[in-house]
Q: What sequence folds into this?
């Protein structure tokens, strides 16, 4: 099952009908890699549940994940990697994180660690956070696909938002159908419930979600008790997270009347007003493409904010499709601060 990363110029492979269920022979995995390299989505068997996988380094592919799931907001996604060494290319591991990774990877445990900037994982996969969720799955087919891809795969559970997590290829087909390029049939998931999520951001690790590895096992490996924290708390507490989830500059949304002191986040066919500096004008998608806009959203907010404008004024963005999640994020960024 161990394969080498496939070269970029792998010969074109007949994509076949969308949403088809395929096996896990080398030719099947090559086809799945070709789909992922093209920015498409693949149903991925893991030992916990099936994942909806995209190239984590391709923002537009990741936007496709949110679009396919119909998620009304951008939850950060788990990035699946081949091993601990690979995980360390994307995240920073403290002593506790290393201990847990060595004890439970490959397997049903996800670690939240500080993100290594410029390591290539798209901002959208991390929902703009300075942390990253990493997991090394143990399922041989997942491992073979990740190795063949040679890149991290962002993959939430492969169900529609609000539905039950899928534990077979047929479950994925039922929920997502032609929204995925193909679904690799790796059999029924052994564990059948999601990975345990442990945050290693603060001084002390905390469990964010119970799952495939029991708390007792984690505590035995750590030699300490493991408190529970909510994802919400981790996303919000500045002590745990290195940077703010919201920009420093005040954000105004649905703006059509820009002010000279504004940095402008445009969408669609909007000209830069002459009074605005070039560096303070970014267009999420001049062609009004919501997938492109989603893939650029977090990076654009970060870039504009770093230029320390008086305010960030955001043009109206449609609320259909991915626009719902984009607007959800913007509404939160524009909420009154306390
Ligand atoms: O078993 C699993 O974990 C499956 C398989 C496919 O690997 N994946 C899965 O992904 O359950 P998903 O997206 O359904 O759940 C990921 C959870 C979300 O609740 C998300 O908020 C949290 O992980 N998460 C991801 N990155 C995070 C971060 N940087 N900080 C806090 N929570 C994070
Ligand atoms: Mg899920």
A:
């Amino acid at each position: 099952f161990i394969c080498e990363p496939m070269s970029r110029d792998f010969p074109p492979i007949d994509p076949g009908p969308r949403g088809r269920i395929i096996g896990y022979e080398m030719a099947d995995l090559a086809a799945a890699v070709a789909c992922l390299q093209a920015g498409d989505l693949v149903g991925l068997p893991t030992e916990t549940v099936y994942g909806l996988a995209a190239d984590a380094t391709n923002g537009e592919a990741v936007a496709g994940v949110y679009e396919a799931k119909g998620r009304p907001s951008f939850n950060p996604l788990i990035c699946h990697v081949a091993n601990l060494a690979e995980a360390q290319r994307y995240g920073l591991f403290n002593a506790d994180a290393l201990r847990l990774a060595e004890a439970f990877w490959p397997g049903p445990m996800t670690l939240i660690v500080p993100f290594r900037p410029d390591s290539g994982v798209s901002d959208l996969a991390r929902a703009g956070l300075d942390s990253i969720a990493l997991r090394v799955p143990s399922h041989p087919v997942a491992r073979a696909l990740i190795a063949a891809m040679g890149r991290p795969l962002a993959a939430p559970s492969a169900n529609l938002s609000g539905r039950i997590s899928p534990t077979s290829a047929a479950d994925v087909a039922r929920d997502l159908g032609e929204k995925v390029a193909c679904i690799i049939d790796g059999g029924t998931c052994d564990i059948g419930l999601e990975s345990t999520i442990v945050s290693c951001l603060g001084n002390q690790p905390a469990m964010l979600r119970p799952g495939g590895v029991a708390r007792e096992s984690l505590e035995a490996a750590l030699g300490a008790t493991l408190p529970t924290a909510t994802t919400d708390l981790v996303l919000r507490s500045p002590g745990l997270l290195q940077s703010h989830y919201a920009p420093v500059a005040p954000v105004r949304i649905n703006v059509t009347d820009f002010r000279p002191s504004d940095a402008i986040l445009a969408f669609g066919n909007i000209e830069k007003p002459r009074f605005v500096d070039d560096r303070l004008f970014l267009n999420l998608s001049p062609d009004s493409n919501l997938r492109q806009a989603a893939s650029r959203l977090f990076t654009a907010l970060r870039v504009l904010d770093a230029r320390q404008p008086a305010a960030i004024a955001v043009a109206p963005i449609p609320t259909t499709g991915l626009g719902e999640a984009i607007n959800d994020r913007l509404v939160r960024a524009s909420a009154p601060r306390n």
User: Anything to note?
Assistant: The first strand starts at residue 20 and ends at 22. Confidence is low (pLDDT under 50) at residues 238-244. The first helix runs from residue 26 to 37. The two ends are 53 Å apart (CA to CA).
